[in-house]
Amino acid sequence: MVGAQRADEAWGERIDRAVSAVRAGELRLVRVFYADYNGLLRGRVVHAAGLADRFYEGVAVPLVELVADGHDRSPHDPPPGFGTTEEVRLVADPTSLVTLPYAPRTGAMLGDLLTLGREEWDGCPRSFLRRVLADAERDGLLVEAVFDPQFYLLEAGNVAGRWHPVERTPAASAAGMQAAAAFTLDLVDGLEQQGVEIEQTAPGAGPGQHGLTVRHGPALQAADRHLWLRETVRATAARHGLRATFAARPLADERPSASHVHLSLWDTRTGENRFYDPADPGGLSASGRRFAAGVRAHLPALMAILRPTVNAYRPGAADGIDPGVEGPEDAVTVPPPMWGREQGTTNVEVRAVDGTCNPYLALGAILAAGLDGLRGGADAGPVAPPPASPSAPPPPSLGDALDALAADEVLVRALGTPLAGAFERVRRTELAATPASPGPEEYDDHIRRY
Questions:
Q1: Which site among 132, 298, 391, 444 is 20 to 30 Å from 2 CA-CA?
Q2: Where is this region: Disordered (predicted)?
Q3: Which pLDDT band, with edges at 50, 70 and 90, does 443 fall under?
Q4: Can 3-121 and 132-449 be said to share one CATH topology?
């Protein structure tokens, strides 16, 4: 939704409903967030009494804040237009309002970054996803998606304050379920209050690791829900005296974590799943094959966005892409559909993702790559069923992934020069400040931030 549309009657009605919900819930404060180029939520806390004005006036955000890395270090050479005097306005999406179960009398919303001329800002990650979704819709396609993340539950140790797993139980074991029973129940209750439906949970292969399967939905909502999920997991863990982290490799000697992304494309005219073909032995249509081939073809560049931290490339973190994946050919695959719901559950799964990514950038970039394959782009690769058309090997480092992204014309064009350039500068700032060899401090830092 661009700035010009924010003055229409429907926009005013959405604002009225949000303000009424805040009053009915007797909320005192509302947190208004955007997701930055580090995958972190930043924003401002707005007093409920002035919320209606903030929808029309926005909240000032200096652009220098946007190009800071996770330690608030800015690049030595900020991208053009990202100086200390420029700013954008953060305008909350009233349809994203949730009541936070872990903060008394407090709500939260996600927003878009607009220019001072009230137009969509090219560097906004959420607006980028909107643009890619609008591009798909022009081809008669609606996108359903979901992020299914893994995370670790940790507790403080006795050695230099280091974190260690809260328990050591086998994967998917009854013992692991029971050890996390109280936390899991509180988590599911809190997420349901925010409209995030958890279909199942299970202890992971790592000690203290857990995985969530989330109900899919429209792509923009899926990205929003992933952010609410991450914050709620962390806050719920804290209420239980624990630390939760989505870092790719929070513990040097344990299994890494991932966040699988599932997508399907639906025909706006027929309402059918474009990835499903009942005549195919595997149920996958030619469109689904082309989409998967497109994602595979662009995987080296995608990794900079899907696994954007140095930690994600530490020894072991990308072994086989993620736990349970045998090789690069399985980074993009098609899981078997559910019995009796074949059309509704046929999807392409991207496994080369970790939970620290910005979900708007990740989902938008995956879609841009897949649509390139669907349209027969020159770099889309062969139309073959997964896993018969293997991906290129994943980049060995974040620097290599960023190089691949800068050289990928399809993804740079989709992102736009301002967004692609700013994202690269921020990630390279953190890369330059990180020692070549990991130490305990690095792992602890990623646990705290992610």
A1: 298
A2: 378-401, 431-450
A3: confident
A4: no
* DSSP, res 91: E
Cα 226 versus chain centre, distance:
6
Tokens representing residue 164 in the block: 């260690």
Residue with the two structure tokens 């001329």: 117
d(CA 404, CA 389): 20
What does the angle CA 306 – CA 132 – CA 90 come to, to the nearest 5 degrees? 80
Q: In 10 A of CB 391, how many CB atoms? A: 25
- 307 DSSP assignment: S
Give strand ranges (E) for 71-158: 87-92, 98-99, 106-114, 141-156
Q: Based on C-alpha coordinates, what's the Rg of the chain?
A: 21
Which fold does the domain 3-121 belong to in CATH?
A: Ubiquitin-like (UB roll) (3.10.20)
**Cross-strand pairs, 244:** 153
Of 143, 129, 368, 147, which is closest to residue 261 (Cα–Cα)? Answer: 147
Tens of pLDDT, residue by residue over 66-82, are: 888 888 887 767 676 66
For the chain, the structural domain boundaries read 3-121, 132-449
Return the number of other C-beta atoms located less than 10 Å from residue 417's C-beta.
13
Specify the pLDDT at position 363: 98
Rounded Cα distance between 312 and 68, Å, is: 19
The tokens for 418 are 């301002």
